[in-house]
Design goal:
About 40% of the residues lie in helices and about 0% in strands. The chain has helices at about 5-10, 15-25, 40-45.
Amino acid sequence: MTEMTKELAEELAFTQKELDELERARNMPITFDEDCPEVTSEMAIRFHRVNPPREQQKAGHS
């Protein structure tokens, strides 16, 4: 079930307009403001994940 039909692949593919928008966004600078401040070292230390990473599968088990 890992193979996609051609139709599904085309449906999920980005349009040229979307690709252009992504490229423009990629080249824009990041601007921090009062609603979204840059994360300080102290803030990063206090950060706790809401969804902890899953344990990796044990070797030899699928």
